[in-house]
UniProtKB/TrEMBL annotation, chains A, B:
<dbReference type="InterPro" id="IPR002173">
    <property type="entry name" value="Carboh/pur_kinase_PfkB_CS"/>
</dbReference>
<feature type="domain" description="Carbohydrate kinase PfkB">
    <location>
        <begin position="1"/>
        <end position="230"/>
    </location>
</feature>
<dbReference type="GO" id="GO:0016301">
    <property type="term" value="F:kinase activity"/>
</dbReference>
<keyword id="KW-0418">Kinase</keyword>
<keyword id="KW-0808">Transferase</keyword>
<protein>
    <submittedName>
        <fullName>PfkB family carbohydrate kinase</fullName>
    </submittedName>
</protein>
<dbReference type="InterPro" id="IPR029056">
    <property type="entry name" value="Ribokinase-like"/>
</dbReference>
<dbReference type="InterPro" id="IPR011611">
    <property type="entry name" value="PfkB_dom"/>
</dbReference>
<dbReference type="Pfam" id="PF00294">
    <property type="entry name" value="PfkB"/>
</dbReference>
Length: 256, 256
């Protein structure tokens, strides 16, 4: 984990990461306040509107990797400005598999940087409306193929409650979402998805298409817990047995 | 097949059905014009707007089943007024599995009739926006469970390009749509889906949950061909090998 928080950031969250064996050496605390976002979701939970963004300590953040991070083989470039994602990537010695996440903002204000970045990554993750914006294609399948032509070997288009589609030379993987009858808050679902995905590749130390499918399902399951409560409410309470339980359910619900 | 057309209906379509071994004894031709619908689809191909409906010979149609139809074990009550669907059903001697299709119009103007009908059927098929309207639930998973409580043993909620969800006491089946990069016209996709579904049950002469899953996939594949051209353009040209080919692809794209 590489990131920055302000002095107001609750210590208990850093402790939570430590208790889950997350290496927080790359997490800096700077004078000032933590980045904050406020938004509103529509009833369908897929569309959201930003009400306010305060960059705070994030405004001048230049991610520098601790020496121990530089040999990391599996890299997730989480959603920040593409130029910063490139800066992080340049510090990694010999990455084996690189995933970049992005969002509508960078498609609009840093399109060239984003196009440069994705030539260097193995997988781009974005949601369906972003894929449409990025390519100008209304058809999501066509949008996925167009992004593949821009450089990355794989593309994952997320569709919220409708699941996700993995695109590659090997074909497609059409992953459903885990069925939930009570979605409380989708904030952070995309981060859980991408984190669960790269986590599977790192744990298995492989990135063939079958492992990528497994990784997409794992990301889906982690995200499904996240959306059931506000903040870390549900996520901090779950264990690997519960994740395995939902993964088994996914297999049951998707097989024929 | 039970239905009515006007004198303007092209004979070649009736011959097409005959050439595919569809029994057209129940298809009547009456003096006047055939039912006609004109509509417009939004870019996402999921939302449509009716521009005009002419009932024509359909206005006074009372479906009467030929004697040879009355012992049919597998029944699809295609999308007409629920009172007419009930009238058809009352003529079947000992149905083994009954599916009813419906649409937003009947949910709005014949809600009580529809609620009565679905107590007598094994499965209701409707799309996601209709399921929301019918139950008042924004969450599709919750909507499916509410409809199950109204009587049918199974519910299928169709989500267009996002696939379909089968609900039953046995759990869920989360079926993806077949990935297409060029959708020409979704008109009739729902009928193809429901027809393909009941066709599988009739061909296999069983309706356990695994067969229902297979049937949902078959309906999905048939519908995928239909949307690739206007009218019967693609549908009349395909054969069972092409259907089997896409079914195999579906299995490949959905398995993990």
């Amino acid at each position: 984990m590489v990131g920055v928080v302000g002095e107001d950031f609750p210590k208990e969250y850093v402790e939570l990461f430590r208790s889950k064996n997350v290496d927080v050496e790359g997490l800096k605390t700077e004078a000032g306040k933590t980045f904050a976002w406020h938004g509103e979701y529509e009833l369908n939970m897929n569309n959201r509107r930003t009400l306010s963004v305060e960059l705070n300590v994030f405004e001048t953040f230049q991610p520098e990797l601790p020496a121990s991070y530089r040999s990391t083989p599996y890299v997730l470039l989480a959603n920040i400005a593409p130029s910063l994602q490139s800066h992080v990537l340049s510090q990694i010695e010999s990455p084996r598999f690189i995933i970049a996440d992005t969002m509508d903002l960078w498609i609009q204000i840093a399109n060239e940087d984003l196009r440069k970045l994705i030539k260097q990554v193995d997988m781009l993750i974005l949601n369906d409306s972003e894929a449409r914006d990025f390519t100008g294609q209304d058809n999501v399948i066509r949008a996925g193929h167009e992004i593949l032509k821009m450089g990355p070997r794989y593309v994952v288009i997320k569709k919220g409650e409708h699941g996700a589609i993995l695109f590659g030379q090997e074909g497609y993987f059409l992953a459903p979402a885990f069925p939930l009858d009570d979605v409380k808050d989708p904030t952070g679902a995309g981060d859980c998805f991408a984190g669960g995905l790269i986590g599977t590749l790192a744990a298995e130390n492989r990135h063939d298409f079958d492992t990528l499918k497994k990784a997409v399902i794992h990301g889906t399951v982690v995200a499904s817990f996240n959306v059931e409560a506000f903040s870390m409410g549900k996520l901090k309470a779950i264990n690997s047995e519960q994740i395995a339980g939902r993964t088994g359910k996914m297999r049951e619900y998707a097989s024929f």
